[in-house]
Amino acid sequence: MHTTTMSIPISFAPLDTLPAVIRSGGVEADRCLVVTDEHVAALYGDAVCNSLVPKGLEPHLIVLPPGEATKSQDRLAEICDRALAWGIERGTPLVALGGGVVGDLAGFAAATLLRGIPLFQVPTTLVAQVDSSIGGKTGINHEAGKNLIGAFYRPIGILTDPALLKSLPTREWTSGLAEVIKHGLIADDALFTELETHMEALFDRNESVVERIVPHAAGVKVRIVCEDEFETGLRAILNFGHTFAHAIEKVAGYGAYTHGEAVAAGMRAALHLSEYKTAGFDAERADRIVRRIPVPPGLASLSIADLMDAMKLDKKVSRGNIRLVLIDRIGHAFVAGDIPSTLIEKTWAFAQEAIG
Amino acid sequence: MHTTTMSIPISFAPLDTLPAVIRSGGVEADRCLVVTDEHVAALYGDAVCNSLVPKGLEPHLIVLPPGEATKSQDRLAEICDRALAWGIERGTPLVALGGGVVGDLAGFAAATLLRGIPLFQVPTTLVAQVDSSIGGKTGINHEAGKNLIGAFYRPIGILTDPALLKSLPTREWTSGLAEVIKHGLIADDALFTELETHMEALFDRNESVVERIVPHAAGVKVRIVCEDEFETGLRAILNFGHTFAHAIEKVAGYGAYTHGEAVAAGMRAALHLSEYKTAGFDAERADRIVRRIPVPPGLASLSIADLMDAMKLDKKVSRGNIRLVLIDRIGHAFVAGDIPSTLIEKTWAFAQEAIG
Question: What is the value of pTM for the model shown?
Fold first, then answer.
C-alpha cells in the first residue's frame, strides 16, 4: 500500500546534543515528554533534563519500572493518561530514552497519542542502538504473545551515543552482541569477520572498537529497513533466530531470558537447521561466535510441544505454515516456508542438548 | 514526513459485493473478522456472513454494544483479545461494519493488531458513508476528550451501499445530513445549492436524491483528504463546527447529543463567528439550511467556562491558541488562529440563545 522512499535519520553523537536533534527535526514546541525507566533515569535523567531546559524545552519525565513486563497495555495507558493530563499538543515531542522496552512502548504511545506526536528515540542499550530503535516498529506484549499489538511509526530522529553503553550491566551488553552477530550473519560478512577478529575487545567494551561496530551494525539494519519498511519481504531476514527466540521467551516466561539471550539460543537452533538445509554451509564457523554469548540454562526443561505451539502464534506465521529465516552462507539469509514440523521439533531437541 | 500519493478506493455498490471488494484488495485469506454493533448485526449480520462463506471467507463476528461509549480502551482490548484468541494472521482482513463508532474503533484495532491487518470499511450510517469511513482516521475516546488515542490507517477498501441508509433511525439520518451540509459549506458550493433545492426530498430519503448526494458528499471528503492525508493543512477545514461540537459533546456527556447534532450546533456557532470576521458573508443563507437539522435542547444549560476549557483540550489546539475553521463564502473555508477568548465566549452565548 505504502510506497514511500524513506531515510532513517540517526545521529551518532553525545547525549547532550538531544535539543539540537529535536530542533533539527523541525519541532517548535516549548515542552517535551521524556519516557524512560528507573535505571536509565538514575543514570541519565538529570543530564537529559538539564540539556533540554536551556534550549527552551521544558521536560516532563515519565519514569517506568524496568523490564519486559512494562511493555503492557496498563503501562501504555499510564503514559497516555499522564501525557494527556499534562496537556500535550500535536507538536509536543516525545523522547523515548532507554532500551528496547522503553523504545517500543513509548514509541507506540507516540504513535497513538493524538493520532501521532513527534517521536525521538534515544537508545541506551546495545540492542536498542543497533536494532530496536531503527525501523519504526513499536508495540506492546499481549498474553497471547510478544509485540502482538503495535504500529509502524517512524521516529523523526534517533540519537545514538555509544558512550552510554559503558554503564550497561554485563548481561545486557552480551545480549546486545547477539543482535550484532545476527546482523553480520544475515547481511554483512565484513561485519561478521570484524566480530571474529575483535570479539575479545568487544566483550571488554574497548572504546574504539565499540564506536566502530555500533554504526556498522546499525547500518545493516538501516539498509534492510529502507528496502522494506513494512516487512513485506526482505525485512523478514531480521528475524533470524527470532521465531525460536519468541517461543523460548514465551514458554520460559518473559524475563527468564533477555531478548538477546533468547536470540542467541534461537540462532544456534536456526544455524543447525541452516546446515541441514544447505549442504556445505559452514555452520560451525558461525556457531563458534554465537555460542560465545552466555545463555542461562533452562531451555532443556521446556516442553517442545509448548515451544511448537508458541511458534505457531508468531506474527510471521502465514496461513498456518511456520516460516523460518535460515542462512546459506555468512552474510546471506533467506526465508524457508517448507520446513516440516518434525524437523523443527528435532531442531528444538538439538538446541536443548547443545544449550542445556 | 510521509509524502505518498494516495487514492481512496470506494465502491458504491450493494452490500453483497463485499467478498469481491475484499478479494480485489488482494486479500488471499480464508477467514475474516467482522466487527459490528448489535443494531447493525440484527439488520445486516446474517447477510454479510452469508455473502462471505460461499466465497471462501469464514467470518468471525464480534458484536459490540451500540453507542459512543463503545469507543473505549476496554472495547478495543476486547476486540484485540478475541481476535488473537481466534488466531488471526497478518493477512486476515477485518471488516468494520457499522457507523462511525464501529469504524473508528475497529479501524484502530486493525491498525494495531499485529502492527496492522487489512482493513475494509462498510459504513452503514450517513455520517460514516460521507465522512468518517473516508480518510483513515481511527481511534478511541479518552476521559480527557474524544478521539485522543488513535492512528492514521488506510482501509484497503470501502464498500458504500446507500440502500443501507433506509434502515437508519430518523435521528441518525438527520445527524448525517449535518455533515453533508458541512461538506457543501466548506468546499463545494454546487453541493450546497443541491441541498437547498432537495432538502425536503433528503429529509424524506428520496432514493434517487440519496443515491446522488452520498457519492457527491463523499467525494468532497476524498478530495480534501487526498491533498492532506495527515492533517497538516487543508484537511483542518473538515473540522468546521467541530471544535465547538467536541466541546458540546464532552461537557454535555457523550451520548446526550449525536455527533451530527453537536456538529449542527457547532456550525451555527461557527457561522455566527464567520459573519463577524468576514464582512458581507451571507451567514443567513447558510444558517437557513443548518438550522433545519433538529438539535435537542440543553445547550443553554451548559457552563460556558466548561465549554471553553473543553475547547482548549481539543487536538487542533496549537501552542495554547484555539484555532477555528470559519467560512468566508459558501464553498470556501479557512483556519483562523487569532480569535480572542472573549469573542469565542460571546459566540457560545449566541449559540445558547439561538439553540436553547
Answer: 0.90
